[in-house]
């Protein structure tokens, strides 16, 4: 064989849908063989179950379904070689494994050796570690196989090289965060160059609850030059051609941009925006819904959420609801109406005056002698939450909550009020990033010759919950530029409060923010899921006890 035609099947599978995933594998393999004359078709990690299946792996029926699926793929007797990820049971042990199926015969299995158990990963809860390399004689070459985390450790690659590997296939379910692409590129450069072995790196794509898998399947040649033929945040059947240049030695033929070129042109805002669009679209569609709705206040958080929802689902599937009260400004009313008109969404105005007054009347006796405080503000927010959930029930549309990471961190949000909803695309976006993303979305509109998706005044006006006369966010919180830095250091980088003060922040301000973060875990535990953007998102990433006596003291 002088030329090896490979197709990297960067697909968006549905967790737990083993029959559907199996059928997609068979159909896309047939497509790859027919359209690209593929000799080798490679699927992502745990492609039969999709990733992460979590406690579905503990279901007694799962392994039986997986074995039937593997047999179905073998019975299809496709004229090529397939690499398929699956959970493999041996006695009492379960492995994260892959199967090499050549012309309908399962010729090899590999068991993942390095199991990640940090950040969003908890594979040691389910899987046992493999111990042996897998190097198979294929296409006149010695081809090695590894799975995701194996590539981040030296030992599996060293084992494969010592076993005579001349080509490495690495299948992945590697989730997005803002710097992940550069990390992958550097990793492939180092591993390929160190062992002079080309690497085919295939990654899953799609949203799964809080996680987004961004694709960007890659190829590294034996010199460590990385090219990225796989699209970002989109499915793709990615053809790659390898040429035989020696005894079992393959060289990569690639006309695609290098990894460093790609990373340089992808701004932080583009990466995050694309992740949010994909994460929202998949959450809605994979859960069997078509439509969403949200409270549109005339502020930047709901304004950005509306733009993302329209880009993800189409304007015809989005409803914006303005729910004014006596403190809602005329500017908010006009800006909300203007944005809904620009984006072409359905727009409803449902005043909450009567609802609030009814609750106030009911509570008049038990509240007698008590001063007005945050309770009354929260009732306003909860009136809005009730209306949105009623509309959701009646029309079958998911409610999107719109709180950003800064608010969620310090509890500047109302349980069963503005926190009510099924999904929150801004959950891991700081207020600072929200502003950046709003500007980014408007720049995209400008480049397309369109009007701003988010009216300029929505971006420039001082942020306010408008639950009290003249209210501004900064009446209760530090300015967002400082607040977001403190949150990043405390939550995402695990700085102590003392170290944050040493970094130049005000002692009292740091103490207040840390205390708010610590005491509001109970709210975050009840918040809707949302797209993970950073290395430490609330939810799967950061798991703190609600009931605890930890004190973040500023020395």
Model description:
It is an enzyme of class 6 (ligase). With about 550 residues, this protein is an alpha/beta fold. The protein has 2 domains: about 5-265, Carbon-nitrogen hydrolase (Nitrilase/N-carbamoyl-D-aminoacid amidohydrolase, 4-Layer Sandwich); about 275-525, HUPs (Rossmann fold, 3-Layer(aba) Sandwich), CATH 3.40.50. About 40% of the residues lie in helices and about 20% in strands. It contains 17 helices and 19 strands. A 7-stranded mixed sheet has the order 5-4-3-2-1-14-15, with helices on one face. A 6-stranded mixed sheet has the order 6-7-8-9-12-13, covered by helices on one side. A 4-stranded parallel sheet has the order 18-17-16-19, with helices on both faces. The model has no long low-confidence stretch (mean pLDDT about 95).
Produce the secondary structure layout.
Layout: E1 3-10, H1 18-36, E2 40-42, H2 62-75, E3 81-90, E4 93-102, E5 105-111, E6 135-138, E7 141-147, H3 154-162, E8 167-172, H4 180-195, E9 199-203, E10 205-208, E11 211-214, E12 218-220, E13 226-227, E14 236-246, E15 249-253, H5 259-265, H6 268-286, E16 292-295, H7 300-313, E17 318-322, H8 330-343, E18 346-349, H9 353-363, H10 374-395, E19 398-399, H11 405-410, H12 431-447, H13 456-460, H14 480-492, H15 497-502, H16 507-519, H17 521-525
Helix pairs in contact: 1-2, 6-7, 6-12, 7-8, 7-12, 9-10, 14-16
């Amino acid at each position: 064989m002088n030329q090896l035609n490979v197709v990297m099947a960067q697909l968006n599978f549905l967790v737990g849908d083993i029959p559907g995933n199996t059928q997609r594998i068979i159909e896309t393999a047939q497509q790859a063989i027919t359209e690209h004359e593929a000799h080798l078709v490679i699927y992502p990690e745990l492609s039969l179950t999709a990733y992460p299946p979590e406690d579905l792996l503990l279901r007694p029926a799962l392994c039986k379904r997986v074995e039937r699926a593997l047999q179905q793929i073998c019975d299809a007797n496709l004229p090529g070689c397939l690499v398929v990820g699956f959970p493999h049971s041996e006695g009492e042990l379960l492995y994260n494994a892959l199967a090499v199926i050549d012309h309908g015969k399962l010729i090899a299995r590999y068991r993942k050796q390095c199991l990640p158990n940090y950040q969003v990963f908890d594979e040691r809860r389910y899987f046992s570690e493999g111990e042996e390399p897998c190097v198979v004689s294929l296409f006149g070459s010695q081809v090695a196989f590894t799975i995701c985390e194996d590539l981040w450790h030296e030992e599996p690659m060293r084992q494969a090289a010592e076993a005579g590997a001349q080509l490495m296939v690495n299948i992945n379910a590697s989730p997005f965060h803002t710097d992940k692409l550069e990390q992958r590129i550097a990793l492939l450069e180092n591993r390929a160059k160190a062992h002079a072995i080309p690497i085919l790196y295939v990654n899953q794509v799609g949203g799964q609850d809080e996680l987004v898998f961004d694709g960007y399947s890659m190829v590294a040649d034996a010199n460590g030059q990385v090219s990225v033929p796989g699209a970002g945040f989109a499915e793709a059947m990615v053809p790659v051609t390898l040429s035989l240049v020696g005894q079992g030695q393959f060289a990569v033929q690639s006309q695609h941009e290098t990894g460093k070129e790609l990373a340089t042109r992808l701004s932080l805002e583009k990466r995050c925006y694309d992740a949010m669009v994909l994460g929202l679209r998949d959450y809605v569609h994979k859960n069997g819904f078509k439509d969403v709705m949200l409270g549109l206040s005339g502020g930047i958080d709901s304004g950005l959420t509306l733009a993302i929802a329209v880009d993800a689902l189409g304007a015809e599937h989005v409803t914006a609801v303005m729910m004014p009260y006596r403190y809602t400004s005329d500017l908010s009313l006009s800006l909300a109406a203007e944005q809904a008109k620009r984006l072409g969404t359905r727009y409803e105005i449902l005043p909450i005056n009567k609802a609030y007054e009814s609750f106030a009347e009911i509570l008049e006796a038990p509240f007698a002698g008590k001063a007005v405080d945050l309770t009354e503000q929260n009732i306003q927010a909860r009136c809005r939450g009730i209306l949105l959930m009623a509309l959701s029930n009646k029309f079958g549309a998911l409610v999107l909550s719109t709180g950003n990471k800064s608010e969620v961190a310090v509890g500047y949000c109302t349980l069963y009020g503005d926190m009510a909803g099924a999904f929150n695309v801004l959950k891991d976006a700081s207020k600072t990033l929200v502003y950046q993303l709003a500007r980014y979305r408007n720049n995209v509109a400008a480049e397309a010759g369109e009007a701003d998706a988010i009216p300029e005044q929505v971006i420039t006006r001082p942020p306010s919950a408008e639950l009290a006369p003249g209210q501004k966010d900064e009446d209760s919180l530090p300015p967002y530029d400082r607040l977001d830095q403190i949150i990043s250091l405390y939550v995402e980088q695990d700085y102590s409060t003392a170290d944050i003060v040493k970094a130049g922040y005000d002692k009292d301000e740091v103490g207040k923010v840390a205390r708010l973060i610590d005491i509001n875990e109970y709210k975050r535990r009840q918040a809707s899921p949302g797209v993970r953007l950073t290395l430490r998102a609330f939810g799967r990433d950061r798991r703190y006890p609600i009931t605890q006596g930890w004190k973040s003291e500023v020395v």
